[in-house]
Amino acid sequence: MKINDANSREKSIMAQLKDMVRTDTKVYWILWKFAPDLLPTASETFEDLQRTYAAFRNLSEDLCNRYIYLESVQTAVRWLLRRMDGARMIELYNIYFDRAKSDVQAFRALIDFKKEFFRDEEDSELLQILSGVDLDGDTGGDDDFEMDL
């Protein structure tokens, strides 16, 4: 599979957010509030947002700020912040990598960072679920089920 094939199948951030919140207005508000650099047109103030996107012309900023109380909006914001955090972690990795070339302490920090950054999340989640589970089946209690035939 080519890399371009994988990229073309992944939804854009805007499409993913729209699947979650169902309206363009909420998508644009979320981006304006939490990731303004991802908006197609720069909007520094709410008035800019109103001038740029017709859906906001009859809405107040106070009304739109109430979107944050909607579960779907909270879910979408958490998803967006995780994506943004992933991008920031990549930036940090590059910074550590560049500094590690000339600084022993930065090299040590890079090694520690890599352990966490590259760990397989699915495996660690499974290990968390299984921690505390007695895989040998020996509970040490007398409440084992026995069946007399």
Helix share, percent: 55-70%
Measured on Cα atoms, how large is the radius of gyration?
24 Å
Structural category is: mainly alpha
End-to-end separation in angstroms reads 58 Å
The largest pleated sheet is described as: none
* Residue share in β-strands: under 5%
N-to-C order of helices and strands: HHHHHHHH
Oligomer state equals single chain
Q: Quick one: overall form? A: flat
Catalogue the unreliable spans.
none
Number of strands: 0
Mean pLDDT: 86
- How many helical stretches? 8
Concise overview:
With 149 residues, the protein is an all-alpha fold. The chain has eight helices and no strands. 62% of the residues lie in helices and 0% in strands.
For the structure shown, list the relevant keywords.
149 residues, flat
Kindly describe this structure.
This protein is an all-alpha fold and 149 residues long. The protein is 62% helix and 0% strand. The protein has 8 helices and no strands. Helix 2 (13-21) crosses helix 3, helix 2 runs antiparallel to helix 6 (71-100) and helix 6 (71-100) runs antiparallel to helix 7. The longest helix is centred in the middle third of the chain and has 30 residues, at 71-100.
